[in-house]
Amino acid sequence: MIEAHQISVKIGAQFLLQGVSLKILPGEVVAVIGPNGAGKSTLLKVLSGEWVPSDGEVWMAGRPLRTWSILERARRRAVLPQDSTLAFPFTALEVVLMGRTPHCKDLERACDYEIARTALIAVGALHLEARLYPTLSGGERQRVQLARVLAQIGDTFSIHPCYLLLDEPIARLDLIHQYSTLQIVRDFARAGVGVLLILHDLNLVAQYADRIALLKSGRLIAEGSPWDVLTPEVIQSAFAMSVVVIPHPYLGCPLVIPSPGPDLVPNSVDLIGRCKEKK
């Protein structure tokens, strides 16, 4: 289990996170949602060990995360950041093989290539293995990066509890690859991997998450099942937006529908009107 105890992150006089506690259990998908600037990516960075909290402690497998070496962490948890920049002309397969680095003493073994190619198959990108990474589209790069993190825990999660920490994994993906990516996430959770992912689409969250953590202004304001968190009152409080929530007609999860009203009137209407007046 990865567990955050009363995590706070303060930069100058500003709190990016304040008193946040959260658990990620093996075998479950935890979705972190919230408005822009709520502290979602900051929380992921703290849980991964990239950032040290100003206060509080993160534990993994019963030990404080700070006592784990970087190599030990990399063998048990893989992180997909919001943006992955790579300008060097590596092939897609070489990028995925980077996920095997924590497990290689020297050169990659045959089994590392097999795991990397299996990960590319899982994300539907094996046909890209010889392509140079900088020449790929945004969505193709995203799928290759997802394959990299899957390859990183690919031969470990059956031995030890492992974790995937994914920051907006479906950004830049087309419709079919959004759903296929989240299905991969669900499949890994069923196999015993603990998953934390940051998403903005509340209906996808409702379909694929076991538990939801809702952040606002650096604080955890709601946590629970999709039915517990995705209520009109909670969504209004977090996003200042009126919605209707009904049972999904096929899936048995909440279906969030925006309510037409004043809070959906775009500010561009006023801007366009003013521009016309000046003419």
Largest sheet, in brief, is: 6 strands, mixed
Low-confidence parts, pLDDT < 50 over ≥5 residues? none
* Assembly state: single chain
Q: Helix/strand/pairing class, anyone?
A: alpha/beta
The amount of beta strand, in percent, is: 25-35%
Q: What is the count of β-strands?
A: 12
Return the CATH topology: Rossmann fold
User: Strand arrangement, largest sheet?
Assistant: 6-7-8-3-9-10
Rg over CA atoms, rounded to whole Å, is 20 Å
CATH architecture: 3-Layer(aba) Sandwich
Describe the protein in words.
The model has no long low-confidence stretch (mean pLDDT 93). Helix 4 crosses helix 5 (138-152). This protein has helices at 40-48, 70-76, 92-97, 110-122, 138-152, 175-190, 202-208, 226-229, 232-239, 268-278, and strands at 2-11, 14-24, 29-33, 55-60, 63-64, 77-80, 163-167, 194-198, 211-216, 219-224, 243-247, 254-258. By secondary structure, the chain is an alpha/beta fold. The strands form three sheets. The protein has a six-stranded mixed sheet, with helices on both faces. It has a single domain, classed as P-loop containing nucleotide triphosphate hydrolases (Rossmann fold), CATH 3.40.50. The chain is built from ten helices and twelve strands. Helix 6 links the parallel strand 7 (163-167) and strand 8 (194-198). The protein starts with a strand and ends with a helix.
Which key phrases capture this entry?
Rossmann fold, 25% strand, 279 residues, 4-stranded antiparallel sheet, 10 helices, 6-stranded mixed sheet, alpha/beta, 12 strands
